[in-house]
Design brief:
Elements (H helix, E strand, L loop, with lengths): L1 H5 L2 H16 L27 E16 L2 E8 L8 E4 L3 E8 L8 E3 L23 E7 L4 E6 L14 E7 L10 E10 L5 H4 L22 E4 L10 E3 L4 E8 L5 E5 L4 E6 L2 E2 L7 E2 L1 E4 L4 E7 L5 E6 L2 H5 L3 E6 L15 H5 L12 H5 L13 E6 L2 E3 L2 E4 L4 E6 L8 E2 L14 E5 L4 E6 L9 E6 L1
Parallel strand pairs: 1-4, 3-8, 9-12, 11-20, 21-24, 23-28
Antiparallel strand pairs: 1-2, 4-6, 5-7, 7-8, 9-10, 12-18, 13-17, 13-19, 14-15, 14-16, 14-18, 19-20, 21-22, 24-26, 25-27, 27-28
The structure holds copper (II) ion (CU).
Length: about 450
């Protein structure tokens, strides 16, 4: 510090730079700025020249299918959750034109891309938040090979990420990689709160009563845990052939910690936050934990044919969506122990007319359902485990419907559009709702949506 004061200002600056450069082992005196190509980059002689890569990202509401039969309103980039994979080569000049078709201000931020300040969108930044209907172009040089990401700004006031606004951004090496992989898969991890609708995020509706009195972003209560915006069988599996080396790029775009675990295979962690792990330091593991925003690349050697699970090891995350398979081409899963099929009558339905102690299961199974039939005011719906009986019913406006839980598990009656929610209904308990206006109201059990526990109330 004293040395700087004693020297003339420009000379002092040069000396400091030279010392810093020497310390960093960098041969040039030019200061490095965010957005510059890395100064220690490999010689570019054999590599193709950098290109200008242009992308369009549009934030827009879209219907998104979490799994067959379960569609939600999402906020998306270009209509998908996650948004499109943006892929460039190191050193490319990247231009991303962002159009905001949401009813609220939005922007794009970058994970692991050391962009200049002028490309770091968000509140209090310049270019800052883009108003509804607005457009901005982010421009930066892609530095740092690896698994990166992008997302909307996050904070108490911006509840956009949990509705689907995130996506992968991959920077490939300019020269061919020495260790090429036979296949590569990218999985973006996230969570979904079925009560969080675009209307809630736009401050035009409220979350169900009973959530804690804290800022909205801290009231989230996730129902589903997703890989690439999908749950369970809707997630594309990892398909391999024996002997192949596979790279999995894992990106945690959610708000929770996830621990991804592979059966039958250990893997090597070859990159963290996109940056390569020196070969001698690469850990061999079968579980890897990703905190929010973290990325991990793992290399998996396919040497154990079969059909294996690949999932988050947090039990309710796995049970509610975050599981797929690692399957060898042509392999079939070894059959599970065969359970006797549930008697059709047990699931067939029952128009209950009594509230009281839960009857024995046999009493439920005997009746038949008349789905779609008109029902008198005061209609009752029986919940057995994982079914509403009847699943679809029609009532007149002003009618009350009472759901009675005759099952052994806790269930809920939750409007798909979050307009009402029973909260937990224990065995033997009931919930009554009066429908004041005509319409078609899909309902679901928040605990057992994945088991197909859905229904519809048509109000005439
Ligand atoms: Cu998890």
């Amino acid at each position: 510090m004293g040395a700087v004061r004693r020297l003339g200002s420009s000379r002092a600056f040069s000396v400091v730079l030279c010392v810093l450069a020497a310390l960093a082992g960098v041969a040039t005196a030019a200061p490095w700025r965010p957005g510059d190509a890395p100064q220690a980059a490999a010689p570019a002689a054999a590599a193709p020249a950098a290109a200008v890569r242009e992308f369009e990202l549009t934030a827009q509401e879209a219907d998104w299918e979490l799994f067959p039969g379960a569609s939600v309103k999402a906020w998306t980039y270009n209509g998908t959750v996650p948004g499109p994979e943006l892929r460039v080569a190191e050193g490319d000049l990247v231009r991303v034109a962002f159009t905001n078709r949401l009813p609220v201000p939005s922007a794009v931020q970058w994970e692991g891309l050391d962009v200049p300040e002028s490309a770091d969108g968000g509140p209090g930044r310049s270019p800052g938040m883009v108003p509804p209907g607005g457009r901005v172009v982010y421009e930066f040089t892609a530095t740092g090979v690896g698994t990166r990401a992008y997302h909307s700004p996050q904070g108490d006031a911006e509840l956009q990420g949990p509705l689907g606004l995130y996506g992968p951004f991959i920077v490939d090496p300019r020269a061919p990689e020495p260790a090429a992989y036979d296949r590569e898969y990218t999985y973006t991890l996230s969570e979904w709160d079925l009560s969080l609708t675009p209307a809630v995020a736009a401050d035009a509706a409220r979350l169900p009563a009973g959530r804690p009195d804290v800022p909205l972003s801290r009231q989230l209560d996730y129902d589903l845990f997703l890989l690439n915006g999908k749950a369970h069988e809707a997630i594309p599996p990892i398909v391999v052939r024996q002997g192949e080396r596979v790279r999995l790029r894992l990106i945690n775009a959610g708000n929770l910690i996830h621990t991804m675990h592979s059966h039958g295979h250990s893997f090597r962690i070859v990159a963290t936050d996109g940056n390569p792990v020196p070969p001698g330091l690469a850990l061999t593991k079968d579980s890897v934990t990703l905190r929010p925003s973290e990325r991990v690349d793992v290399e998996l050697h396919a040497t154990n044919p079969g059909v294996w699970m690949f999932h988050c090891h947090m039990e309710h995350h796995m049970a509610n969506g975050m599981m797929t398979t690692l399957r060898y081409e042509g392999a079939l899963p070894i059959a599970a122990v065969t359970a006797p099929a549930a008697p059709a009558a047990a699931l067939a339905g029952h128009q209950g007319h009594q509230i009281g102690p839960a009857p024995a299961p046999a009493a439920i199974g005997a009746a038949t359902a008349t789905p779609g039939s008109a029902a008198a005011p005061g209609t009752q719906v029986v919940m057995t485990d994982n079914r509403y009986q009847p699943g679809r019913l029609t009532v007149r406006a002003g009618s009350s419907v009472t759901w009675v839980n005759r099952g052994t598990n806790v269930h809920t009656v939750s409007a798909q559009d979050a307009s009402f929610d029973s909260g937990p209904i224990g065995p033997g308990e009931s919930f009554t709702f009066t429908f004041s206006r005509p319409g078609e109201f899909p309902i679901l059990c928040r605990q057992h949506l994945l088991n197909g526990m859905t229904g519809v109330v048509v109000v005439q």
